[in-house]
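Example record used in the benchmark description.
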Amino acid sequence: MHGTVQLKTNRLLLRKYKMEDAETLFRDFGQKAEMSEYSGWNPYETLDMTKQTIQNFINSYSDPSSYSWVIEYNGMPAGTIGAYDYNKKENSIELGISIAMNHWGHGFASEAASAVIKYLAFDEGIRELRAWCASDNTGSKKVMEKCGMVLDSTDENALKIGDNVFDKLNFVFRSAD
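Model output (structure tokens):
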């Protein structure tokens, strides 16, 4: 395993976090309630939290089973994507992605996720990639489907976020053995 390496797509650069990303991530992710509407967590809620989150990602780069990228478009952070909780026994990992609101609807999420899935499954040899979303999050469902993930199971009323309760849709991508 090689961990986080730079990846390029037609329009995007997926690169390691830098402390210089803090202001943009705080502004575009931490200050907008819509960014955590379906996840219930916001690691960029304050500038200090943003800097600590970035430092944690930077520290994790020494672990070859840790994967955390900033999605850069035209030289600026447009989103984040990562793979977490690698399970060596099952050779599986969980994906998470977030795109800044001003970049929604441009196909960045599926473009970045497709690149990461290809890297993890075919270059890193990870057999199973998992992701989930709230049942009302139609944008995330579409992204996962576009990337070749399939709905594997539904956990009814499993996500309580604020006053809302959602079904948790579990998606999976399995590479051929």
